[in-house]
Amino acid sequence: MASDKIKITDTTSSETIPAGEGQTVGYIPVNYEDFKAMWLSQFDMQNIYVSGGRQRDEAGFKTYAKQIVKNIKNAGFNTVIVQVRPYADSMYPSEYYPMSSMATGSYGRQADYDPFAIILEAAHAEGLSVQAWINPMRAMLDSEISSVGKQYLIRQWYDDTATRGKYIVNVSGRWYLNPAYEQVRQLIINGAREILEKYEVDGLHMDDYFYPTGVDSSFDSAAYADYKKSGGRASLADWRREQLNKLVSGLWSAVKEYNKDLLFGISPAGNFTTVYESMYADIYEWCSTPGYVDYICPQAYFGFEHATCDYVKVVTTYQSMIKTDKVKLIVGLSFGKAKEGYSSGEDKWAGTGKREWIENRDILVRELEYTKKLAKCTGVAVFCYQYFHDPVTGADVRETADERSLFVPLLKTISWKD
Predict the structure, then answer these.
(1) Which pLDDT does position 418 carry in this prediction?
(2) Across all residues in the chain, what is the average pLDDT?
(3) What is the greatest pairwise CA distance in the chain?
(4) Which residues of the chain have pLDDT under 50?
(5) What pLDDT is attached to residue 22?
(6) Tell me, what's the pLDDT at 256?
(7) pTM for the predicted model, two decimal places
(8) CATH number for domain 31-138+177-413, candidates 3.40.50.300, 3.20.20.80, 3.40.50.2300, 3.30.70.1660
(9) Residue 90: CB atoms within 10 Å
(10) Is 282 helix (H, G, I), strand (E, B) or coil?
(11) What's the sign of the alpha-carbon dihedral 330, 331, 336, 342?
């Protein structure tokens, strides 16, 4: 299902056309109208990618990949969102980013085979749609970056005193890419385009790591000072939002220029106030103006009784942001609090609703039912595989069994088309 250069045939001509040239791509994306997605994260896969400190043998990895996607399909999902870039690195052999330590055991190692190609092929064999999930700005730890190969821009920027602290910035021991610079935005966009050119993915998915939450002005002081010197009047917060807007619109354009039928979506955190004011993501602009996203997928990881940020408030607020029919609402759900509640873990940020997940075993099915009340909702995304099955043994997760026993039957039958 994947190759370095996919070849397609134009049905009106005998000429062979290379993929990656605008909208001439012949791959027809598998994008279901009722979007039922499971996130497959780095943490779901870390003990599948690696065994004994090194990349797992290819035959063993293929066996695991086939079982994982089969379990996802059997639970009623039709789409899998696979994390391919967690820390400015890569889960596949890339020209632009180093192989992730989670894929090979440590930075500085090359892969013996392409694990993402295997997952993609297994998923498509099961009829699952696949979206490639990237974290654009967050990079590796300070203790890890010196192991990254010098052929990669991120290492070159780290080594160069003129770009270290500007293009790449250390925040509490972790490096972040700074989207204020065109060269940085272009790296991120080139990495996204590379995925589309190498693999028959059905979409590109961007996670919720934008600016480090509430980071101070030292993060981008040089770039902002240059902006002010040139006559710019925007506040630092608004200027940061504009830098992210440039990145997001650039990613959307890259996707659509390659194949207009591929999807591009973003999954911000559920707390919309934090997202906008402290992470500087202009979710209101993205949801109201064409040219940024095809869907917004808020991580509505809250119960109905959360004292300040309850589930209904989150999903209805995000729906109200959508002012164009070009943007759809996908609701993000998580079984994480259900697992914690089974073991009497309180939702410590929920105030008066802190015991909701302890005292109830039907929250997620009620949240799924509620999505039918949302006129702009076309599906859900669920975090994540390890809350359904142990990734290595395949065993069902006991702590979420009650919630899943109600949720899965409804997921298999629910439709947002009527």
Answers:
(1) 78
(2) 94
(3) 67
(4) 1-24
(5) 40
(6) 97
(7) 0.93
(8) 3.20.20.80
(9) 24
(10) coil
(11) negative
